[in-house]
Design a protein that fits this description.
Strand order of the largest sheet: 1-2
Helix content: over 70%
Largest sheet: 2 strands, antiparallel
Structural class: mainly alpha
Organism: Rhizobium glycinendophyticum
Low-confidence stretches: none
Number of domains: 1
Number of helices: 12
Strand content: under 5%
CATH topology: MetI-like fold
Keywords: Cell inner membrane, Cell membrane, Membrane, Transmembrane, Transmembrane helix, Transport
Function: Part of the ABC transporter complex UgpBAEC involved in sn-glycerol-3-phosphate (G3P) import. Probably responsible for the translocation of the substrate across the membrane.
Family: Belongs to the binding-protein-dependent transport system permease family.
Radius of gyration: 23 Å
Membrane topology: Multi-pass membrane protein
Mean pLDDT: 85
Length: 293
């Protein structure tokens, strides 16, 4: 491989400077502020702060409410990631096999990706509305009195359904690109060696898709933990019941509505460490099974 040569040794650093400045302003500096604030109890009106050490961390971890929300966040992230990846891959496999009307089929599946999460949340609330929601009426046919915003599990079901629906097109695009990147010669050789389509998928197609699947696994875990905030906010905001929320939404509630900046900062640092460990585990153990060709 031919290496790129620069006329000046400082030129590569000059190219990296804008990205470094952006990361410093929008990640490193806020992270440092959050870590600092997590060791203080701050006056909500800005009249001072008191150093409390690790008290904000111990209070959060010892709280039954925090542990309950953490448990829900884990279950929510796993379900959303699994369903979004599985359905995205299934639709990509079907789209890859379509011959007539291929463009229309792909456009219908991809168009949802253009919907912003807050709008997806509003559309989801219409689907699960108590009076006009088609999903509520459909569930009533089976005797399920769905009450989103009032019942804990019904609200959790709606949150998962809307989050998965909004993420499937993203996975579909990448999986379809990965499928179309597999050479025709390999497909033909696999078709000759193995007549079973299911076996060809598990032994030939899926191993070749593992780089794409691994990338999407990391992206989907991040999406379920952080980017579904807008969907959750639209569904549970101003609802009277004790609805399920994720850790990110609790950070927002304690920091911006409860004005407890110290506890909110400590929770954000804990969440940042959890995501860091989770990402390290993914790269340490799951990447071993990825075949890069």
């Amino acid at each position: 491989m031919k290496r790129v040569q620069f006329n000046s040794r400082y030129l590569p650093y000059l190219f990296l400077l804008p990205q470094f400045v952006i990361i410093s302003i929008f990640f490193y500096w806020p992270s440092a502020q959050a870590i600092t604030s997590s060791f203080y109890i701050e006056d909500p009106f800005g009249f001072g702060s008191s150093f409390v050490g690790f008290a904000n961390y111990t209070d959060a971890l010892a709280s039954p409410e925090y542990r309950k929300i953490a448990g829900f966040t884990i279950a929510y992230s796993l379900i959303v990631t699994t369903l979004a990846l599985s359905l995205g891959l299934l639709l990509a496999l079907k789209a890859d096999a379509v011959i007539r009307g291929k463009s229309a089929y792909k456009t219908l599946l991809i168009v949802v990706y253009a919907i912003a999460p807050p709008v997806a949340g509003l559309i989801g609330m219409m689907f699960f509305d108590q009076h006009i929601g088609p999903f509520v009426k459909f569930a009533a046919l089976f005797g399920w009195d769905m009450k989103v915003g009032l019942n804990y599990f019904d609200t959790a079901f709606a949150m998962v359904a809307v989050a998965v629906w909004n993420q499937i097109p993203y996975n579909f695009i990448f999986f379809l690109s990965g499928l179309q990147g597999i050479p025709a010669s390999i497909r033909e050789a696999a078709a000759i060696d193995c007549k079973s389509g299911t076996r060809r998928f598990w032994t030939v197609i899926l191993p070749l898709l593992t780089p794409t699947a691994f990338f999407l696994l990391v992206i989907n875990m991040t999406y379920s933990l952080f980017d579904t905030f807008a969907v959750i906010d639209v569904i549970v905001k101003d609802k009277p019941a004790n609805n399920p929320i994720t850790l990110v939404y609790k950070v927002y509630l304690d920091g911006f509505r409860g004005n407890d900046l110290g506890s909110s900062s400590a929770q954000s640092v804990i969440l940042m460490l959890v995501v860091l460990v989770l990402t390290m585990i993914q790269f340490r153990f799951i990447e071993r099974r990825v075949h890069y060709g």
